[in-house]
Amino acid sequence: MKIIVIYVGVAGVRSEDIDSFVKTITGRIVPVTFEGEIITIPVQSQNTWIDCINPKYITDEALIKEHTDKMKKLQDELQNQLERLKEGRG
Q1: Whole-model pTM?
Q2: 13 φ, ψ to 5°?
């Protein structure tokens, strides 16, 4: 499974516009045909960059579930951080 991490620079973006700004940038970067996990992280920077985590093919069902659970937990935490940025508590 391929994992792409997109760090979106949100410095200078109004806190109430961060969510839509991040979605717009991510939509421009990710190909429609991409198959894998995408993690989007807003950062207090003017720059946006992408990291690709070297894919590891997992076939064991327990490992797949563990990976999926960890990715969900990470996405929830990233959403919490986005909410903090919106509230100005970055």
Answers
A1: 0.60
A2: -90, 135
14 to 22, 44, 69, 79: CA distances (angstroms): 12, 12, 32, 17
What's the total number of domains in the chain? 1
Residue range 35-90, pLDDT digits in tens = 888 888 898 888 988 877 655 655 667 777 777 787 788 778 778 777 777 777 55
CA-based nearest residue to 36, from 70, 87, 2, 79: 2
Structural domain containing residue 60: 2-86
For residues 71 and 13, give the distance between their C-alpha atoms in angstroms, rounded to a whole number: 27
Which tokens hold the place of 27?
A: 């939509």
